[in-house]
């Protein structure tokens, strides 16, 4: 009789039958590119570094470094779980195997999809605004209607690319990511070389120099957002050569590349502009929303500043594409295991992509964007801020799922104890602590732009998303009895249908 603490003893999705995806489509480089692209490094550092600096001043690099720690620990959990269960459903499959179908469907399925959809609305809007500005259409860039129409067009474009296959998506991402990294590298090098730039100091990496826990906790929470998205690369594990090993390697590599890129950019920006509250200083609240747009002209000149603006634009579009690729494969896996309608298992016969899921996700993101825009621009902004709650929730649950799933093997070796036990446990606990801290902060009605009866709108949107998931879960239990009873589907094959 198997030991109940051994991996696999708990019911849940087992590595499913072939889903119709084209295996071996991408390698290590393409996987890393997919993960980095989904994070949108140029956009993420542009809209976050200013707020981090407002919280902790020139210790922003320390916050970036400390915020990276739970991300790296979580990446180890993703790598180990992927080696054991290489399924494009990733978090959904792993949390179901560890904690059962209820937790798997809600935390590993619903929360991930909702966070991605909200992020896609933000990315499409940012990409549209920057695109209109680059084209010199500044009046249209200030029009909510024009931005929304352009954003929907961008969603249609990336949906078409994702629909045609992962290989095409990866090829496009090489160009988009290359532009982002080149722009950030050029900006950093130019900032260090400018007259008046001060020499960077290692004291900027000292987290113990922060005056008070509150500001530093706020800064670290902001940093969690700028690292989020690298896990999208693991959803391509069934299309990756040697996916059990390569996808996990790519997860760790991509997070390390992000850390290096962010630290280099932060050091360069602080060296050039300082953290003062006037002019181009990073401590100026007027600059916080997009620090690179403020610093690029004096650092690079007017002409090259347009290149940085283009980099932020393509960064948003690139992340939009990667998010769509990952989300559609997540719904494919859920349907393959009997947790969603079978329509999501439809694979395009020529492109070998989840055709229905890709179009569904792209269309849903467009509808959500229009809906939130019609409600209020402030409402859309608070919806974006609530993503932090959802990120911490499912990252933390996944890390703890790794510990629980492998609990019977932790004594097998020192490697298993650390990489499958201690490190993921620390990562999971930090993530859940970040979730609790974020919930506490966002409850304040002064947090964000909206509130309702003395409760912050960001908290209501974040907790409301999870509550809506609980209602959706109750409905799903009435429709997908087999999954919620056994944690898996008994269908042996997926039907590949033409669209």
Could you characterize what this model shows?
By secondary structure, this protein is an all-alpha fold. Helices cover 70% and strands 1% of the residues. The chain has 18 helices and 2 strands. The protein has helices at residues 28-39, 41-56, 60-84, 91-99, 101-134, 138-141, 144-163, 166-193, 213-227, 243-273, 291-300, 302-336, 355-375, 377-385, 387-405, 414-443, 457-479, 481-486, and strands spanning 451-452, 455-456. Strands 1-2 form a two-stranded antiparallel ribbon. A hairpin with a 2-residue loop joins β1 and β2 (455-456). The chain is globular and about 65 Å long.
List the helices and strands and how they pair.
Blueprint: H1 28-39, H2 41-56, H3 60-84, H4 91-99, H5 101-134, H6 138-141, H7 144-163, H8 166-193, H9 213-227, H10 243-273, H11 291-300, H12 302-336, H13 355-375, H14 377-385, H15 387-405, H16 414-443, E1 451-452, E2 455-456, H17 457-479, H18 481-486
Antiparallel strand pairs: 1-2
Helix pairs in contact: 1-8, 1-10, 1-12, 2-9, 2-12, 3-9, 3-10, 3-15, 3-16, 4-5, 4-15, 5-7, 5-12, 5-13, 5-14, 5-15, 5-17, 7-12, 7-13, 8-10, 8-12, 9-15, 11-12, 12-13, 13-14, 14-17, 15-16, 15-17, 16-17
């Amino acid at each position: 009789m198997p030991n109940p603490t051994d991996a696999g003893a708990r019911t849940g999705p087992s590595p499913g039958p072939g889903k119709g995806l084209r295996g071996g489509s991408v390698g290590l480089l393409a996987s890393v590119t997919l993960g980095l692209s989904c994070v949108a490094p140029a956009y993420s550092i542009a809209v976050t570094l200013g707020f981090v600096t407002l919280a902790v001043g020139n210790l922003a690099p320390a916050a970036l470094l400390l915020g990276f720690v739970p991300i790296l620990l979580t990446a180890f959990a993703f790598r180990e779980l992927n080696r054991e269960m290489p399924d494009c459903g990733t978090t959904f499959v792993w949390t179901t195997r560890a904690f059962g179908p209820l937790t798997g469907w809600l935390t590993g399925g619903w929360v991930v999809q909702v966070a991605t959809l909200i992020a896609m609305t933000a990315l499409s809007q940012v990409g549209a605004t920057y695109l209109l500005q680059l084209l010199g259409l500044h009046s249209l860039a200030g029009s909510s209607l024009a931005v929304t129409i352009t954003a929907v067009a961008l969603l249609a474009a990336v949906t078409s690319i994702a629909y045609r296959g992962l290989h095409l998506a990866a090829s496009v991402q090489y160009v988009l990511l290359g532009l982002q990294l080149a722009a950030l590298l050029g900006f950093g090098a130019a900032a260090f070389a400018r007259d008046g730039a001060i020499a960077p100091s290692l004291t900027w990496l000292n987290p113990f120099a922060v005056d008070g826990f509150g500001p530093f906790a706020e800064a670290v929470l902001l940093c969690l957002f700028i690292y989020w998205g690298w896990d999208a690369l693991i959803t391509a594990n069934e299309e990756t050569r040697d996916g059990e090993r390569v996808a996990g390697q790519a997860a760790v590599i991509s997070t390390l590349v992000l850390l290096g890129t962010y630290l280099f950019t932060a050091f360069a920006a602080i060296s050039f502009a300082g953290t003062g509250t006037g002019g181009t200083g990073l401590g100026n609240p007027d600059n916080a929303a997009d620090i690179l747009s403020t610093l690029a002209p004096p650092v690079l000149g007017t002409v090259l500043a347009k290149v940085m603006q283009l980099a932020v634009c393509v960064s948003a579009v690139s992340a939009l594409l990667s998010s769509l690729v990952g989300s559609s494969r997540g719904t494919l896996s859920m349907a393959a295991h009997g947790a969603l309608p079978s329509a999501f298992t439809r694979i395009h016969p020529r492109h070998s992509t989840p055709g229905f899921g890709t179009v569904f996700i792209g269309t849903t993101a467009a509808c959500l964007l229009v809906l939130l825009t019609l409600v209020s621009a402030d409402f859309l902004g608070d919806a974006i801020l609530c993503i932090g709650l959802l990120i911490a929730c499912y990252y933390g649950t996944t890390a703890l799922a790794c510990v629980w799933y492998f609990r019977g093997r932790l004594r097998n070796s020192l490697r298993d104890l650390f990489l499958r036990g201690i490190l993921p446990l620390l990562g999971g606990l930090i993530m859940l602590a970040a979730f609790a801290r974020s919930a506490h902060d966002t409850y304040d009605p002064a947090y964000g732009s909206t509130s309702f009866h003395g409760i912050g709108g960001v908290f209501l949107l974040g907790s409301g998303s999870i509550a809506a998931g609980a209602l959706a879960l109750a409905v799903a239990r009435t429709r997908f009895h087999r999954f919620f009873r056994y944690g898996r589907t008994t269908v042996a094959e997926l039907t590949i249908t033409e669209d």
